Recover the amino acids of this structure.
C-alpha cells in the first residue's frame, strides 16, 4: 500500500497563511497614514494569526499519539507567539491604536523573517474586507 499525501494539510495551510501575513505586513508598512486599507491589513494579520494558532494543536496531535511529547511541546512553544500577537493586534485594531499596530506588525515580521514570498505570487489580496470580517466575528480572548 502506498503512502497517501494530503495536499491540504494544516502545515501547508500554515505556510500559505504565513506568506499572506508577510504580504500584509509589507502593505501595512507602506501606508503613509491610517485608513480603511490599514484597518484591513491589521485585521487580516490578527485573524490570520488566530487561524495559525488554531492549527498548532492539530499539527502536534499526530506526534502525541506516537509519544513524541518533546517534539510536540517544542513545536507548541515555537508557535505560542501567534496567539499572543493575534490578541494584541485585535485589541490595537479595534482601539485604532496605530502605534501598537505598528509594533505588533514589526514583531510579527521578526517572527516570520525567514518566510520567502516571491514577487509573482498567487495569493492576491486576501486582506480585502478583513476589517468587516473581524467586526462580524466579534472575537474574544480564547476564540
Amino acid at each position: 500500500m502506498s503512502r497517501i499525501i494530503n495536499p491540504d494539510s494544516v502545515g501547508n495551510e500554515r505556510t500559505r497563511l504565513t506568506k499572506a501575513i508577510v504580504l500584509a505586513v509589507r502593505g501595512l508598512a507602506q501606508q503613509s497614514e491610517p485608513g480603511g486599507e490599514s484597518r484591513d491589513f491589521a485585521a487580516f494579520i490578527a485573524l490570520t494569526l488566530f487561524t495559525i494558532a488554531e492549527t498548532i494543536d492539530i499539527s502536534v496531535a499526530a506526534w502525541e499519539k506516537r509519544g513524541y511529547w518533546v517534539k510536540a511541546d517544542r513545536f507548541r512553544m515555537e508557535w505560542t507567539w501567534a496567539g499572543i500577537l493575534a490578541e494584541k493586534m485585535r485589541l490595537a485594531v479595534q482601539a485604532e491604536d496605530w502605534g501598537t499596530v505598528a509594533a505588533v506588525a514589526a514583531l510579527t515580521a521578526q517572527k516570520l523573517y525567514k518566510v520567502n514570498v516571491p514577487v509573482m505570487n498567487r495569493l492576491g489580496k486576501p486582506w480585502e474586507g478583513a476589517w468587516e470580517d473581524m467586526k462580524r466575528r466579534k472575537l474574544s480572548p480564547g476564540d
Remarks:
- The mean pLDDT is 84.
- Residues 18-137 form one domain.
- The chain has five helices and no strands.
- The chain has one domain: 18-137.
